[in-house]
Fold this sequence. Notes:
Layout: E1 3-5, E2 9-11, H1 17-29, E3 30-34, E4 41-45, H2 52-59
Antiparallel strand pairs: 1-2, 3-4
Amino acid sequence: MIYYDDNFGVWDNMDDPDMEAFYHQTQRRSVEKECSICGRMVRIKKEYDKCNRCADMIEGVGGY
């Protein structure tokens, strides 16, 4: 199963129970808000202001 969210993108090692627990904790802490770069409504941690896709674009990751 592939796990994805707007905080960190694709999650690897989801066969690790600790990683899966951290993923679910991240999902519980996420809120719906507008990304400061692309303007999409995303679910990210309240302390974040941009989605993973835009963060990757800024960092030159992911082929954007």
